Amino acid sequence: MSITEHDWSKPAAMAIPAEGYFELERGRYGPIYPRTPSCYGFSIIAKVKPGREEAIRAHGKDLEAAVAADPEVLAPLRLHYLRWLLFDVGFGLHFQYQGIFDTDFDKYTEDAVTLFSQTGITTVFTNLEGFPEDWKENPASFVKYVREHQFPSFLEYGEYPYVTGIEIKKALRLKAAFSEMLDQMQ
User: Fold this and answer.
1) In whole angstroms, how far apart are CA 179 and each of 169, 184, 186?
2) pTM for this one?
3) 25-50: string of b/e by CB count within 10 Å (b at 16+)?
């Protein structure tokens, strides 16, 4: 089903099999996960290297500052949302990364490696056990790590399904323009 066949005006939910896909289709780095009502995304859970909690929290502040300095710095990733969590359920500190974006997994991870290499921003994943030292020179090792630590969702929901971040921003610009036009008419 193409994006034009989806009705963005009606919420939608999609139950996803345990494998993370309906039909095995191979991408450059493994299975292609489907586009869902919330677009594309993935969740990673990995153990934090001992003593690296503060480095992870500092990385969050660094990323906040980078976006404040240049709101478009992460634009190549076509992100909707990121959520980072630190938690310990009795087996040591773990990190969870949740990202929702508009491109497929392969493109997102390749774009992330390129972005980190070009901007000097490093990935928070360097603080996680088993993350490859050669990730910048070897994007396949980055992808392999992410795939090994990914936990596919089994349900995804979209209040405005299959809508891209670009489409949302365009609609909000249009809304602002209409509001300004109406204000001018008064």
Assistant:
1) 15, 9, 11
2) 0.85
3) eeeebbbbbbbbbbbbbbbbebebbe
